[in-house]
Amino acid sequence: MHLASGPAVAAAELEDVSKTYPGGGGTPALRGVSARFAAGSFSAVMGPSGSGKSTLLNCAAGLERPSAGRVRLAGEDIGALREPALTRARRRRAGFVFQSFNLVPALSVWQNVLLPQRLAGMRPDRAWAGEVLERVGLAGHRHARPDQLSGGQQQRVAVARALAGRPEVVFADEPTGALDLSAGHEVLTLLREAVDQLGQTVVMVTHDPAAAAWADRVLFLADGVVHSHLERASAAEVAAVMTELSAR
Ligand SMILES: Nc1ncnc2c1ncn2[C@@H]1O[C@H](COP(=O)(O)OP(=O)(O)OP(=O)(O)O)[C@@H](O)[C@H]1O
């Protein structure tokens, strides 16, 4: 089953986006960034600490409003939307995976997976949610609470939750940052399979060149601007660019 249309379509797009945070001392976190995340692709966003990676992700996802420029999610100009239309668009079109899992501790695995669809006012697609829980290997844990699971299992629940609503884009901010190597590997495998088998679009911020090497394309940020891109890069190639950026 394909969740997104052909590769030429941008699932998310930033056009000349700048962002200065109130209280950020006037220094922009992003300065005129343009980036296009093709539907059905897996992109990684890398760059030194403070280069604007999370800000880019949050602007693309409608979690932050840019100070200038345009953001389109599945072709919709979300900058033009006021609350609560922006929240509705984000809930309908974006799925999220965060470093800290962000599961609701009082809810079961199953309730966590269905929650975004409920919040979006959608009737949860239980058959599909069951299938994604199966895919992440946790069908037998649907009644468990998050604190009964390992970190790797909790992040797999978060991936299932992000996929369950069939969003146009899954935004992942350091999804392997809190995991050991093998749990991180499992989560990256799931994200890769979501792209290859389901046609999902994934945009992932990471510090780890080995994680970025799972992506089709790596976008490098430095000081709030796009420095460069790599296609189908190895971890060593990604690490070489990071070394160059860190030495600046
Ligand atoms: N809410 C905020 N208020 C003020 N400044 C902020 C806020 N969020 C981020 N910044 C600043 O914006 C710049 C870019 O931050 P951002 O978190 O996007 O970078 P990053 O590349 O994701 O960093 P890291 O790798 O350390 O997570 C930094 O200088 C940061 O201090």
From TrEMBL:
<dbReference type="GO" id="GO:0005524">
    <property type="term" value="F:ATP binding"/>
</dbReference>
<dbReference type="InterPro" id="IPR017911">
    <property type="entry name" value="MacB-like_ATP-bd"/>
</dbReference>
<dbReference type="InterPro" id="IPR015854">
    <property type="entry name" value="ABC_transpr_LolD-like"/>
</dbReference>
<keyword id="KW-0547">Nucleotide-binding</keyword>
<keyword id="KW-0067">ATP-binding</keyword>
<feature type="domain" description="ABC transporter">
    <location>
        <begin position="12"/>
        <end position="248"/>
    </location>
</feature>
<dbReference type="InterPro" id="IPR027417">
    <property type="entry name" value="P-loop_NTPase"/>
</dbReference>
<dbReference type="InterPro" id="IPR003439">
    <property type="entry name" value="ABC_transporter-like_ATP-bd"/>
</dbReference>
<dbReference type="InterPro" id="IPR017871">
    <property type="entry name" value="ABC_transporter-like_CS"/>
</dbReference>
<dbReference type="Pfam" id="PF00005">
    <property type="entry name" value="ABC_tran"/>
</dbReference>
<keyword id="KW-0813">Transport</keyword>
<protein>
    <submittedName>
        <fullName>ABC transporter ATP-binding protein</fullName>
    </submittedName>
</protein>
<dbReference type="InterPro" id="IPR003593">
    <property type="entry name" value="AAA+_ATPase"/>
</dbReference>
